[in-house]
Amino acid sequence: MSEQETELQKSMKGIEDISDFPRDEWCEAIEGLSEELGYYEPLGEHHSVAFLDEKPRLLVTFESYERTTERTEKGYPIGMSLAGEHGWSSLTLISHGPDETGDWFRSKHIYRYFDRLVDEGFFEDFDQVVFYGAGACGYAAAAYSVVAPGATVIAVAPQATLNGRLASWDARFPKTRRMDFTTRYGFAPDMLEGAEKAYVLYDPKVEADAMHAALFNAPHITRVPCRLFGIDPEYEIMEIDALAPILEAAIQSRLTQRVITQALRKRRSHMGYQRRLLAELAPSSRPYQTALFCRYVLRQRRNAPRFRRAYDLAMEVLEGEGKALPPAQPAAKAKNETA
Questions:
Q1: 13: in domain
Q2: What is the pLDDT of residues 64-96, one digit of tens each?
Q3: Most-buried pick from 65, 132, 148, 208 (CB within 10 A)?
């Protein structure tokens, strides 16, 4: 961040909390902020785009009203919030309709908008361009990144396509059966051909997400398994404050798989991750690992009855086998006791 605050950074400091606003009022608030420092444009009935202009780095995000208002501190899109904090430009594509099918951004209005940006050479004005999205929005981020050759793409648990011929095994989104994934920007992995780098983050234990991730297969695409992050990895990534460092590294042209892995290490202290790991460990069949892990958690959290019960059961099994745990390490080293 530069030493002198930009107009964008100043404007974002005093923004109101819009997380409880109804859809129409929320869109009006986004429009008001955007028109001060860029523009806001409806793209059909259920989509819009907000641009905040602070060259030379651009963060392009695909976001929805529901997820944004539920997950961000004041209800503003992730892209706008990070741009405001760091003084970047942001281009935020927003789905705000009542139907979840809008979250894939499959609309002729959006096709035409990106056609216009390409014709105008819009993306050529930026030194670095990063596309980001999660789930359906991750599909859109990958699919539309083709308009900005050389971009970096980060997609969390994206679908490659929901074309019934190619992805009939994914039955999670029945409403999308009426949608067309065969026309422009249809198959997301193919649309990544022009990207400099792409990172696909997913939980390999979520079968459908793992199958989609397998379709993103090219030398410049890095698949990053996020084990035990569940069906909504973005939520977990945001909960451990790992998303911002990942996007910051991308916009600064220093993102690697190692950087992502380091950012995700915070999961070790996150209760959701700890509970899922405990569920995977069976105290009776893996008592040693279970006891070590539960001891680690109980040193962090005094009120964790689930882990206390699992620890006691695992210790009973170990005692019956004539085994014991090694002495507990000092608190500073306890983080290494994880299973």
A1: yes
A2: 999 999 999 899 999 999 988 898 999 999 999
A3: 132
Query: And the tokens for 118?
Result: 């390409």
Q: Are residues 96 and 169 in the same domain?
A: yes
Q: How many domains does the chain have?
A: 2
302, pLDDT greater than 60: yes
- Residue 87 contacts residue 71 (beta carbons within 8 Å): no
pTM: 0.88
